[in-house]
Amino acid sequence: MNNLLNPKWLLVINTLPITVLFYLYLSKFTIIKSLLNVDNIKLWKSFGISLGILSILNLLYALYLILKKQKVSAIYGFIALVAYISFIYLYGSNSRDIIPFSIPRWMIPDDMILYVGTFLMPTLIYSLFILVSHFTYNTQNRNPWKSFSATLLIPLAWYLISQIILPLWKPLGANFSTHTVIIFVIIGTVAFLFFLIRGLYILASKKADIWQNYQLAWKIPISMVLPLLGLALNNGRISSFLGTGIFGDFNSIWFYILTVVNGILICLPNLENKGYRLSLFIGRSIGFSFTFYFFLVFLPFLPLSIIAIIAFGLGFLMLTPLLLFVLHINELSKDFTYLLSYISKTKLRLISLLGFLMIPAFITLTFLQDKNTLHETLEYIYTPNYSKSYNINRSSLQNTLDIVKQHKDRNGAPIFGSKVPYLSTYFNWLVLDNLTLSDKKINTIENVFSGTTPFNLRSENIVNDQVKISNISSESTYDTTQNTWRSWINLEITNHNNKSGFSEYATSFNLPEGCWISDYYLYVDERKEMGILAEKKSAMWVFSQIRNTNRDPGILHYLSGNKIAFRVFPFAKNEIRKTGVEFIHKGPIEITIDGHTVALGKTIEDHNDNFENENLIYVSVQNKKSLEQIKRKPYFHFLVDVSNGNDNNYSIFASRIKQVMQKNKRLSADAKISFVNSYTNTMNFDLNWEQYFNSKNFEGGYYLDRAIKQTLFDSYKNNSNSYPVIVAVTDSIDQAILDQDFSDFKMAYPDLNVFFHIDEYGDLQAHSLHSNPKIIQSYPIKSIGNNSVCKFSMANNKSRYLANNKEASIILKEDILNFSKFKIVKKNWSTALSLQGKWTSQVFHPETTNLDWINHVRGSFSSKIMTPLTSYLVVENESQKEMLKKKQEQVLSSNKSLDLGEDTQRMSEPNLITLMILLLTFLGIKKSKQFMN
Q1: Parallel, antiparallel, or unpaired for β 776-777 and 789-793?
Q2: pTM of the model
């Protein structure tokens, strides 16, 4: 244990954790400082300065000892114990004023109050080791049972005090009594741990024959029996009195297997044989990471162990990781000392390090495989390359989804919930970038690849039946520099609900083509608060958190196509609130909000609404009238359901297809057919289609959304004189995976804005591509092919087909637009058009999303133009703005398809830092196999 006296340990044990502790608290302070009063801020500064002084003194002392080549003294161990215990005690006493209840809980991690104890615990344990080392010399002549007796007497004395003295206690004052009891608890806990460590140290170090001959009598209980008993108790396999998984989820069979294997390695005899001892040393080094893991998990709870012993009796199991930790180090030390006669110290240290890292490396590789599978899945569903074939590892994917769902479990144990301590945090960091998957995405992914029935999603409670627009006005200004209009729609919204409680205004409206939102405001009390343009997911997450605490948010964001969601919250009884939205548009337009139609701008003589640059073309309504109108040839494209459970429907589906083709022969020429489950396989409609159909694997879900998008993409890419009439062939259109409309793909279906499915009678039922695609609509089949489109001929001899309607259209000159060529100008119409063009390009080529979406978001920020990737949000104070900024940075540095969540349950990001710091703090212990020398 003399190696513990090396002052370099102080840098790892104390300086590094406290540095990160300062970073964590400073990052939270910058968010919540505007919500703290003067007294709160004084406490923050006082504790910060105090801890800074302690840390600096510790650092100076360590550097002095290193320069003088001296060892850490017993005086340091005593002073450090007193100083840091006092700091933790005072922090706990003032914690309600440091982080007052007025701070919204969503702004801070749930376990922030534990950070101080967790990060200072290494120093406290280290101080105990220092004191044990200094006061336990000549271990061969000492009796360990004296220390163990003292260890047992302390909880016994506490029990007697609690049963006899405390009931007779006549307090001098409530605070005095409380503080006195706490101080005695602290002293007793320190003494308890001191004698426990001392007794085990003496026991492990003695070389007397009696200890050697009967070492299995104490090694087996410490290394196997007690750990297995602790696992069984924690997992509810012995008793459900304490609940299940109070310290985390250790139900995996691997915890039991590794416990047994690790115990066997520790209990094996230390024979005088080089090859045997080297193999044993390697095995023990590998198992030491497992021992270290549980020591790490229970380290913050060591002070509670004595209370648990008194309260539950079996609380001594909380001490097992500490006992095993000391025992394991001692065995490694013996192996190390023996092998030094044959192998150099450097090689042995390298061997031990590589062994220690084997289990973490295996876990890391497993997580990386899960990450690759998950990212490939997210790419396939949300940012696919429609020209690429995919083959997802379903087993790895399901394992990842199970872990994500487990982490989202709201009914977990009180300490770590349903997570695996630290490993779950590591998983979240490595696989999920400290984000998560929303319930909706988990639903979709499982349905696509497993064909499972989706679980019910929690719907948001929006009370807005009586919240209506009571006044609406507009003002338009013509910008002669860019020949465009900038218009404001100002609204007064009234809550006509006479009941108590808060209501919300929530609606949606459509933007005309070539019109974008460029500003937003909301009155908060009597203050006009301008909207912040933020990344969409971050804005929606912050809006949800603020809304759940009944504060004042307002938000605008795209739903799909040009449809905008507009929400303002909250409205008190009979309250009137003012808000407004600014639009930028080329010519006169009309916008309808909740039945109120507002005309913006007006016609200007000699004004040319057309626009063209190197990337795209804007075709105005007037220009469309002069274009050639043609009718393209329609053809059937069948999307046949070959998902799980449809193998018995083969003959039924084939019969329906033949029946529809017989009734509509003009649509049957050049027909195509796709077989759809998790994937879409397309072929021309020839004589072999039935044979191919019959040979398909019926698995997964009916992923109709992907099949329709694939069909629309192919049609847009071919850009021919024909177009597909999409027909879904399934017995359960309601169960098809079809959660959104296809309004973003409207450029690909200018001729026909519906698709069909064949019902059980062989009739075609129409569904809108533009909205509510699962709802049946009335559409005459005979009219297919009668609709004309506008043919626009470009300079490169290519043509584009535009919907023949009274709306403007946007044409992309190239399929993939180069973002670096865009010139971003604030509140500029042509910049808005370019951003819209880039978004449309990403709709048809989602594979470019992860490369360009950050530039797209930044372009939106710079131009102040809201796009489908951004949102206008109004918040009421600086703390909410800081939180928005933090979440936005987190989202922009991660995979676009991951989520912040859909509810108030937050990810606890700093737990990862806790893991990393504690890991770094004690990683050097891998060398401490020499401690017992």
Answers
A1: unpaired
A2: 0.80
